């Protein structure tokens, strides 16, 4: 059985790949392709956040009693990323190269830091505490089974 850490990190990679497609389209000034990829990226990330916020994080908090720890930090960063993803999609839809570049640069930095914290700290803790929880397993499997949001 694949660990929660491995599965969720793999989904991070999928999201990163879709983000890279949006950036590449922006560099070519192919705004329809950029907008499509930006929307796909946002959909994939929002599905990822839903899995974490509705299944993984609550189970982790229930198992550990830690409600003011790493999950709180991650939720706060999710709020920031949601706003940046909206700006990214809006800029792509408006063919606004500067706006897209600004949103993408900030989002990339935040995502890299966020994913590192999840992959190196939170997910391994979840592997130890909630990886066997049926609701968590089902939510993670559903995220993967939905496949690429392309």
From TrEMBL:
It holds the Pfam family Hemerythrin. Transmembrane segments: none annotated. One of its GO terms (cellular component) is plasma membrane. InterPro entries: Hemerythrin-like. Residues 6-126 form the Hemerythrin-like domain. It comes from the Bacteria. Coiled coil: none annotated. This is Hemerythrin domain-containing protein.
């Amino acid at each position: 059985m694949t660990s929660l850490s491995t599965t969720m990190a793999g989904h991070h990679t999928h999201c990163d790949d879709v983000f890279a497609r949006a950036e590449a389209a922006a560099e070519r000034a192919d705004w329809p392709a950029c907008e499509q990829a930006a929307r796909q990226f946002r959909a994939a990330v929002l599905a990822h956040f839903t899995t974490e916020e509705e299944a993984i994080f609550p189970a982790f908090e229930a198992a550990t009693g830690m409600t003011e720890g790493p999950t709180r930090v991650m939720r706060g960063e999710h709020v920031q990323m949601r706003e940046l993803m909206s700006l990214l999609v809006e800029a792509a839809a408006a063919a606004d190269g500067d706006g897209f570049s600004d949103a993408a640069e900030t989002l990339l930095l935040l995502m890299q830091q966020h994913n590192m914290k999840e992959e190196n700290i939170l997910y391994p803790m979840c592997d130890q505490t909630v990886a066997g929880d049926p609701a968590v397993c089902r939510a993670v499997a559903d995220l993967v089974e939905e496949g690429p949001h392309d």
